[in-house]
Amino acid sequence: MPAAFECHRLGKRYGSTLALGGVDLEVQPAELVGLLGPNGAGKSTLVKIACGLVRPSGGEARVLGEPAGSAAARARLGYLAELFRFPGWLRADELLALHQRLAGSDGGAAERDELLSLVGLGDAAAVRVEAMSKGMQQRLGIAQALVGSPRLLMLDEPTSALDPVGRRIVRDLLVELKRRGVAVLLNSHLLSEVERVCDRVAILVGGRIAAQGAPGELAQARGVEIDVDGGTRTYPDADREQVPEIVAGLVAAGERVYGVRVLSSTLEDTYLAAVAGDGSGAPQAPGGVVNGAPEPGAGS
Amino acid sequence: MTGALTIAGYALRESMRRRVFVVVLVLTLGFLGLYAVGTEAAFDSVSEFRGGAQVEDEVLTGSTLLGLAMFTTLFLGCVLAVFLTLGAVRGDAERGLLQPLVVRPVGRTELLAGRFMAAAGVCGAYVAAVYTAAMLITAAAGGWWPDSPVSPGLGLVAGVVLIAALALLGSIFLSATANGIAVFMAFGGGLAAGLLGQIGDALSVETLETIAEVASWLLPFEALYQGGLNALTEDARGATGVIVRLGPFGGAQEGGALLWLWSAAYLGLVAAAARLAFARRDL
Hints:
The complex is a heterodimer. By secondary structure, chain A is of the alpha/beta class. Chain A is built from ten helices and 14 strands. In chain A, α3 packs across α4. Chain B is mostly helical. In chain B, α8 runs antiparallel to α9 and α10 runs antiparallel to α12. The relative contact order of chain B is 0.14.
């Protein structure tokens, strides 16, 4: 079975500005991959190439085995842009009906009702887009992206305008989509959200993948803290495997142990290290990958 | 083709919902009302001075008034064509409206075709209806009919279709405002070149005629309009023919099959250029 999305040595230049400098990335079916990176890192460009909105300058990208941008590829993906807008005069149900016709979906009213319910807009089918809040429009955008049962969903900052309830709805939706076998490439600045739902994370800096792996793999051991009678003792070089030995030593020395904490870096630490380019965010666990420093002058 | 029809229906529905057609209908009825009053008064005034002159008053009055109506119809059709297409690509892309549509398998060519079908269909039907109404009003007021009643209307329809195609092509490269300005300036430039050609024809100034001819090749909607004006009085002879030709709505250039062939080829070239440019454009 082909990858839901794969790109190899994918490059893009806008004039003299490098947006992507040879990106290799794969998203497998039913896999939820988070794409992180600072503004101008090339995240949106990567997603747009996958959707056929932008032509790559080099390398190749495929969607479910089809060349990215081809009609066959576009027929199998759903997309929500970061800066999207729908015509204000359209009602929610009409918007979905329009996209059903464009996508060749024969889901009819049942599909529209289901999608609106999935994003928490079940009672807003007759509401015009211009009467919706930004958060409602964003959820409608996700419903629109799901028209035609795509096998790959490209979401560019899908929760940027959502309140906590809306984010929860989207998070649950992503889990449900994964259960249904849909692959998702989630482009987001919300690290906690990505860490919570994504199977794998790729950090894009300066148009290159600076680090990628499972969130747990990207975390780095930061030592062990142990609470004893005299306070907290810190063992900065220790890891989880050494805890029994350290505790046994303390007990043998007459200390009373009240608590043990194994410290590790968060995804945020890894992200910040990758963006800073100092390599300290390098994943230590197997499976994670860290690439070289970003090329200066990269654009979005 | 199904995708293009879907896009065309979407564009038409947008115009309906945004009350574009209501506004256009009300203002056009206002124009036709004024035209009816003015035409009636003009024919009444001319009939009082009738008295054996060599000039056919009904022909002169009717062709001048209907020529004015044709100019106004072309202008209104141009306004409609431009406003229906000026932001179709770059404008909509900058607002984030285009990307969700382009990502669908319907594709860019069908999307362009759909927008063109909607704009050309609306504008073509509009100028055909206004021209027909003006012709009927002229006939009712003064009993005058054009020598060739159909071809001027067809020329106007083809003219606004070309303008819609040019505006759509411009929308790929230019922002909505810049595109609107560019198309209106091209429209104005074409009309000015046509008038220069008429002056050149009347005074036998070859340079002015050459300018008009070149403008006609570059902007065939102007030549179609001039050909239509010419067809209004194509059978007029003697003093009447001369005076009509010297007037602002005389139509110095004849249409002919070559013009229609070139207009069709021009439309094909504009369509090919738009398709190529849109296919290569990053959104």
